User: What shape does this take?
Amino acid sequence: MLRAREAVRTLPSYYPPLAGRQGLRLDFNENTVGCSPRVLDCLRSLNLEQLARYPEREPVEAKVADFLAVAASELLLTNGVDEAIHLLCQAYLDPGDEALIVVPTYSMYRIYAMAAGAKVVSVPLGERFQFCTNAVCDRITDRTRLIAIANPNNPTGAVATPQDLRRIATSAPHAALLVDEAYFEFYGQTMLGAHHNFPNLFVARTFSKAYGMAGLRAGVLVGNTEQMPSLRRVISPYNVNAAALACLPQAIADQTYIQQYVNEVLEARALLERELRINGIHFWPSQANFVLARVGSSAADSAAFAQQMRTRGILVRDRSSDPGCEGCVRITLGPEAHTAKLLKALQETLREFRPLQGASRS
Assistant: This one.
């Protein structure tokens, strides 16, 4: 009887709770108002010929490379950052190799590494979810072939410094180091440019968060010129769809729109953190477009809190299943009007939600 590989049969399942998302979507770290009007105009202008032919990735790669100030040979457009992660696992992991991740973090690092047959080595973040470079370096072995670090991290919003990341790259020259900068626009610091000095360093970006194009599935992977040909060998020549390719030049051209949205999110983040602090709710300072807060001591508490927010028209993400996140929810930020709705629902929920009284510190 036909059977999938053992590595696939034993994979943990990942089912994002996408169904029934009625309300203000503050649960998936998406742009809460959507893409630039220039992107919408581009979508409306697509013609039959553009949709009928296979998409050509390279001309748009050149434009995105120019925007990021890297060489076109150093950049690959991907079907979201998820494909970038998958590509690195396919290119550098053999069965029995080790993939190192810091936890809690984005679930797909583990899943794609396990699917390649690798052993996943999890390094817990430090106290208050601070990045611990020493702990990461201590777990590097001669079998380590991939290290994946979200920076800022999801779901904590914490960051590793450029010095931390350079030290890790130096400590593991035999391993691909992925720095996933999906939330770069809300943080402002990048490892782009360092890939010239570290052949094992890769930087990923996405158009799903600040750019409001999650539905188009467009990502970027940048790496040293020596390494990119290997990734091009394993990627589909038509991996990014025609609509996404047509819209990307318009998206990157409208930086006024992006910066305005980012500024509003940063203001909203400060307001939410202030409200949580006033109410004695423990949270972790964030450099992303979300805040992780502990609203109870158990998964039942965070689930109940999320449900009460839902009844008030606000969707937040229960993160209790992540290591160290028992009783926690993650709340995405948006512009001023959305923030006002969030804070009103939050205040109403906090007045009624009993478990908070005994779980405001961690």
